Amino acid sequence: MTKKLLRLQPDHADALHLLGLTMRQAGELEIAAALIGRAIGQCPSVASYHCSLGEVLKDQGKLDGALAALDKAIRLDPEFAQAHDSRGTIFRVLARPEDSLAAHDRALEINHDSPEILNNLAVALMDLGRLTDALDAFDRALLINADLAEIHSNRGTCLVAAGDMKSALAAFERAIEIDPAHADALNGRGAALWNMGRNEDALSALDECVRLNPDQAQAHNNRGTVLRDLGQLGNALTAFEEAISLAPDFAQAHSNRGSVLKDQARIEDSLAACRRALEIDPDFAEAHSNYLFCLNYDPSADDQMLFQAHRDWGARVSRQTNVFTDHANARDPDKVLRVGLVSNDFRRHPVGYLTDAVLTAANPERLQFLIYSGAAKEDDLSERLRQRAQAWRSTIGLPDQALSEAVRADDVDILMDLSGHTAGNRLMCFASKPAPVQVSWLGYCHTTGLPAIDYVLADPTYVPEGGERWFTEKVVRLPHSRWCYAPPEYAPEVAKPPVLEREYITFGSFNNLTKVNGEVISLWAKILHAIPKSQLMLSWKTLADPSECTRLRKAFRAQGIAGERIVFISGGDTHVEVLGQYNDVDIALDPFPFCGGLTSCEALWMGVPVVTLPDTRPASRQSLGMLTALKRTEWVAESRDDYVGIAADLARNPSALVAAREEQRDRMAASPLCDGELFARDFEAALRGMWQQWCRTGTP
């Protein structure tokens, strides 16, 4: 009928407009814009024509033109709710959330019974971190029409941000019930299941999502995240690359791809992927942190390069951040200090284990701990930490500004970052200086680069004299160790060295395979050549992926080591099992330039010698600190040849291995490394000194 009318009246404005809308629905945006433009040419004072043109231009990505058309529609009809609402969606694309909210608010004033406008308003509130208000708006929309899949799906996304995964899952499943192919709901369902720790179910949900919606880049990206968590690095890399092929400027997918390449010890490729993410989005904090973290693994990066990269990042962030200067904390030098601990890893993770040791030994009449946890997947250690802390705050879904305000409301005296540039960090909160004294400790092996963080806790081995020049923070050295190891009660008994039964030496490393770079493989191969019939046992979760085993065997074969001499274990189902695997290792080989941390502690507790090769960077000196505390510096190499020599000499001396096994646990238990009370005194003294400095001068 419309086309017939146009044949009779080629300049019929309504017919041109209607045909333009039809072409928009068919995806013919150029034709749609031309037809609606002709309609406007015939009747320039019809507001709906300008609104329709604005929406077509929005679909084309011509946002300035779209806003101009919508503004024209509103000038012609100030009460045109749809035009106000469309302006709000454009402001969201332009990352102008306040303007988006204002536009949707105005639309809702005009048409307060529209579930679509309420939905858009709720999304704007969600972008601003006002999750409670957003959920209220979603619920109001569903009271008007409970059968709109889009609203249920968006509500699920909001619930994920709020950390309520169970309710989020129900919301996504209701959306899918209404529309079984709803891409965002299927994708969101996978994300919720992943956040609940149900990785296999999450993968199934995301597989279904990409089957029904193969062009949804976000679903491929989320699928890659789940696959990476499952240790399937090859498949994860493929998923991220598929996301990038669908959306070449998808910064998060480039950054995530960089993380997988890091996991595969492809450091140069990882850094390049992070740089690409930052080219797309220079303010992408996660990609910046991924890049800086990856640099710590790069054998070619020297101290100056590492320091400069971190300092440049910190300077950039500081220029963009408003810093609190009006701290109202009582300046009592002897008060019970309220110490905030911020991390994503308060669970069965090295940060969780080492934090537990501190909370167990600290005097609650001197230090009160408030934990700010971003751990979505909590476990029994999370609950143990919760019980030991003065307060436990979930930071899931909490924007950085809101977290800063929560810290101030909690009257925190000293705020400690336990993440640095590792995943899930909250450095943007620290950048605003919500507490008068801020400290980096435990979770990161270099400077954060952030001027708002005043101190870093170290020890004389981790940061030797002169090393402080590579930190933007003031270095405070604990006299004995920068951490305390609390051996788990369930650790298996130490067994005799396996060489006594096997008659061949088993070297081992249970470290993150990111640390096992080409230079490490080359040196380990020299050790295997030096000790005929010896084997190397590698244990890490990603070794469940056959492609990872193939990659490593190929790398060792290139060094002349037969594949059967490399034994792969994909971690263990329990911590007890992992610890027990050390009874199958004679000598632990520390990687470099990023050595073991908790891994070295656990090897030593299980009686296994650890051969380490430190250099000047802090990430290489953690095992050195432990061996110094144990008075076992004969296992510390000064050069690569020395590293090979120490490992080979140990392998040729089974009686030395027996002696180490017999006395090492007692030696370690009696050392400062495991002396919780000593560490607690050192720790409190360091924090007290920082606090008293602020009380005296008002500056750290």
Structure in a nutshell:
The protein is an alpha/beta fold and 700 residues long.
Question: Which features characterize this protein?
Answer:
alpha/beta, 32 helices, globular, 700 residues, five-stranded parallel beta sheet, seven-stranded parallel beta sheet
Describe the 3D structure:
This protein has 700 residues and is an alpha/beta fold. It has 32 helices and 12 strands. The strands form 2 sheets. Strands 3-2-1-4-5-6-7 form a 7-stranded parallel sheet, with helices on one face. Strands 10-9-8-11-12 form a 5-stranded parallel sheet. β11, α28 and β12 form a beta-alpha-beta unit. The chain is globular, with a radius of gyration of 29 Å. The model has no long low-confidence stretch (mean pLDDT 93).
Helix content: 55-70%
Which regions are unreliable across 5 or more consecutive residues at pLDDT < 50?
none
Proportion of beta-strand residues: 5-15%
> What's the average pLDDT?
93
Quaternary state reads: single chain
Q: How is the biggest beta sheet arranged? A: 7 strands, parallel
Number of helices: 32
Biggest sheet, spatial arrangement of strands: 3-2-1-4-5-6-7
Counting helices, strands and paired strands, the structural category is: alpha/beta
How far from one another are the termini? 77 Å
Number of E-type strands: 12
Radius of gyration: 29 Å
- Shape estimate: globular
